[in-house]
Amino acid sequence: MWIAPVGTVALWVAVVAALAACAGLYLGDRLGRPELIRGGRLAFAILLASVALAVGLLETGLIRNNFALSYVAEHSSLQTPLLYRIGALWGGARGSLLLWLFVLCAYGGFILAHPPREARTLLPTALSIMAAVSAFFAFLVAGPALPFATLAHAPADGAGLNRLLRDAAFLVHPVVLYLGYVGFTVPFAFGMAGLIKGETGDQWIRVTQRWALTAWALLSVGILVGANWSYHVLGWGGYWSFDPVENVALLPWLTGTAFIHSAMVQERRGMLKVWNAALVAGTYILTLFGTFLTRSGVATESQHTFSSSPVGGYLLAAVGMATALAVYLIGSRLELLADDRRYESLVSKEGAFLLNNVVFLSISLTVLVGTLVPILSPYFGQEVSIGTPYFERVTAPLFTVVLLLAGIGPLLAWRRAGWREFVRHLLVPLCAAAVFAFVLAAAGVHPLSATIGLACAFFAGVAVLFDFGLGVAARLQMENTGVLTAAYRLVARNPRRYGGYAVHLAIAIIACGVVASHAFQQQAEFPLRVGQTAEVGGYDFTYEGVGTTLGAGIQTSYARVTVTRRGQFVANMLPAAFVGTDAATASAPTFLPAIAPGFYRDLYIVLEGYDQGGATAALNVIINPLVDWIWAGGVLLVAGSVFSLWPRRAMLAAPRSHRIFALWSELEYDYRMGKTPEPEYLALRAQYAAEAERALGAERAEDAARRSVAALESRIAARVAEIARLGSGEPALAVAAAPAGEGERG
Q1: Average pLDDT of 609-638?
Q2: Rounded to an integer, what distance in angstroms lies between the CA atom of residue 201 and that of residue 193?
């Protein structure tokens, strides 16, 4: 039983190391003491090593079924397969907090090993903030959580994992979700470091934007995998119910999306600085709030939440402290956060991004209020329940605006877009969407809300593709090349822009799947005797009987159902019911649906029960249109995000003149794509030329100064070397090597 004491010591070492790293890095940077910074970096390395040791020890206990550890006894069993014993680390509140701490420390270790060149002056302060957060979570794990608590008498077997957790998605969803959730700590740390040091310009926004996009992409994957898990495991035919724990994953995704867009405006135009500071802080605070909600036990109606634990109060206090810190720093730096420029026109990308912020913040507040009211209402003497219909009715119009902005934004130019040019470009996707809506109405598609939603998604997709086509045409004007070559060079030139376009297109595809699966779903429940057939949505479902298997500690009963359409075979489907043999799964059967996916629809069958011998079975049949579009859109979203993150570090650390030339290049494209009228184009081109000339002059002066300093340093180094040789008894050589008269000047 050496695992428990060694693991506990490792966690308390992590607490001390985190505090030492925080103090050393912050004070070393504040006082200009490099030795303190080096000590802080060493302490952070010790923190990472000690947390990694603790994770390894708890995993060892789970793999070896060491039931003397209470966590192992609660979340593993002799019948639990090895992969799920490994995954049991994040199957409970205490282990998941340890994983959270490890991910946080791993991010810090990565930054230590690969410091961002564009924000080196912020690095010690940012790492000290991450160390402070690590100290808090290390204390939670070492103190209240107690993952290495032991039992006085070890049981012969453990309770095992809940049956719903014994799914491949369980091995992916929580880990990726934590990577995204915890990843938002990095932009928060650099954002607050910029405010602390008064550096609110380009440095912090460039590094936080990249990290925020990484965290956002991981959180997107986590949400999509979780939705797919819910769809193919829970047997209710859906994938999102605005459950409180689903909501707290959605909230930082919404504000993170707003920040990623808003940060582009600050990077290019020096605007929306207050918005960005508030969004990066708010996103991190929402991740803390989500951690509190899932681990405090207050969201009792959620099927995702962990049981009540003593860490809830600490997490709520952390939410309050992080909020107070952010409000104080932003409030005290308002002058430094003043925009460098004013809006020249609301008909511009800047205007669209500002509206985008307002809409995403509105959705976030709506979801947050709907999540909190049922939790807080009992404290005011009356319980209030808010279900899925409220969220759908209130957020649907706002998400419709998001789709419209996803199509309008790419059609706008930076700074000022000509009304005539904008309307001319807008007419193409607008007319396409109108024709599409007319076709849907003529085909008898209803309700009207579904037609509007699908038409808006179609508009967004067409607008993105149309703007890409304009870009290719502009490239063809500038180069004598083929269409495919022009398209390749256009995308390779600006991966962040066209990766973002892929994400916009993915959102449109996902929206089609969401609208269709909600509006056009067909469902029927019925009992069937062996050999009997029922018809749903043009498909015939024939019940063939029940089979049973036993393996890996689980008894599986499944109904055999044959599906045909107009006499043609479609699929054999096996909806199942599981009963486990360990304590966690033996109490009641778990029903696992059978799904026959398709491009246009999914066939979804749930076995709700059967009589003795399986002569009659109760089936729930659901036909879900376009559900697979959600998962296909998710793949495109991830691909677009990865492409947006394609390394362009030379541009990240580029001098000001490079960024001016990049904006100038965007102007040329906007002009050739017909977004910017000629008078505006000529005025802006002259302005960029003047700015580029000033920036190049300043950079030449700085370069000359650096060369002068380098030459001086070289001469000093040579003199030091000569003096050293003189002191070592080599005067003849030193004098011979020195130029005439050098000795007198020395």
Answers
A1: 92
A2: 12
